[in-house]
Amino acid sequence: MTAAAPVHPTASPPPETGTMKREFTLWSAFSLAFVFVLPIVAMYGIFGLGLATVGPAFWWGWVVTLLGQLTVAIALGVLASRWPLAGGVYQWSRRLVGPRYGWFAGWAYTWALLIALSSVSYSGAVFVALLFGLDATSPPVLVGLAVALLVVTTGVNVAGRRVVKLVATACIAAEIVGSLGVAVYLLVFGREQDPSFLAEGLQAAPGTPLMMTPFVFLVAIAGWSFLGFESASSIAEEVKNPKHAVPRAIVFSLLGVGTVILFTSFAIILAIPDLPEILAASEGDPVIAILAHHFPPVVVDAILAMFVIAFLASLVGIQAAVSRLVWANARENELPAAAWLKRLRGEGGLPTNAILLTGAVSVVALLVLQNPYANTLLVAFTTVGFYAAFSFPVLGLAIARFRGTWQPGERLFMGRFGTAMSWVALFWLALEITNVLWPRESADLWLINAAPLIASAAVAVAGAVVYRLSPVGRGLVESSIALDARTSAAPVIEKEGN
């Protein structure tokens, strides 16, 4: 691969060079990761699914999953403190094991993010439909609204970083009112159940296999809620003091989201007046039926509007992350049309082409998955995709330590404890991937049951084919040592920002 032309540290590079401006701070990285995992999205996106399939006890799935994902966040924070580069999962895997391993990590992570765009837009479409009085149970209606959300999201990302930061800030404000405000009100004035209600649905019938028990299943469902905290690393090359800021943004965003989810969902579950009645009157989502029981219609509409804002902001964060990942892969000439995808446009140097491509691919995924099980499939695809992507750098760290090549030469995030936690994270990821892929549906729904495994295999096979045609597969890439030397010498362009 041809080395990049030298750039004077004080010069402003032309729009099509491979350096983006550092206009984000720790708060910006935190807020972007926070809106990616946004509590409103993370909780309400699967609240109805968990309540209908398990019962109130599905709340405990969030507790277990948050603890497991915290070990992953710490492990990724360690890697981000050593290599604060755009496309984190891909970049870390590449430097830990090698270009081939990194290429497949980037491939898995890219598809996880793209499917997440489709999944979150579909979940958000339910609330848009309810807000405007449309049929929230009709797949064609929901797909049309989801496509509209993706179009708006793409426009926001193309508009620039200032607009992205503005949307993220507005979303956090909506989160405070829409989640915390509602939760406090319901706990004080709308409580209908005792805390023991959260155990309902937890007991399994005698003789039920372990993997079929409600507790194990609810942990699989909850896996969808704590994804995307690593997205702070995707904008690392646009963040000031990234070795300090990015790891903290990764961990703090997960803890912030987890705290809000546990508190808000606890309040809403205890506000359920009658579970069968709520499920029967849900019209697409039981949360709205619960809120309608406690609030007048005008307040419910205001809450729905805040939900829609929250989903839109989450989509903005997801697309910002995946577009940077695509750009990072293209910068190394590892994707088809790399010259077009790695082009930066405008004064701020935005990966506009990568943004447009990610929006288009997510729209196509929505159009393909038009069926009554679309939400269940998208949740499963997203969950297993992210967990597989997380496994690449965490496993890569274990491989590097085994080989003796993990010698950072500097104190990294959380020191020895952070590195040791990667072993726990690897064990957790293996368990959760197995859990999500485990067949549970009835025999007559065998295709839906096997869909996550089939999709994972399809992505892997497609990746093997594309890899053979890529520069990595043909051996036309730099070694990890050369990569470290080049990226560490890259100029840093600072600019004031929030």
From TrEMBL:
State the compartments where it is located.
Membrane
Name of the molecule in the record: Amino acid permease
InterPro entries assigned: AA/rel_permease1
Protein's membrane topology: Multi-pass membrane protein
UniProt keyword S-adenosyl-L-methionine, yes or no:
no
Q: What is its main location?
A: membrane
Ranges that cross the membrane: 24-47, 59-80, 101-134, 140-159, 166-190, 210-229, 250-272, 303-327, 348-370, 376-400, 412-431, 446-467
Q: What is the lineage of its organism?
A: Bacteria, Bacillati, Actinomycetota, Actinomycetes, Micrococcales
Say yes or no: keyword Ion transport present.
no
Under Gene3D superfamilies, the record lists:
Amino acid/polyamine transporter I
The UniProt keyword set, sorted, is: Membrane, Transmembrane, Transmembrane helix, Transport
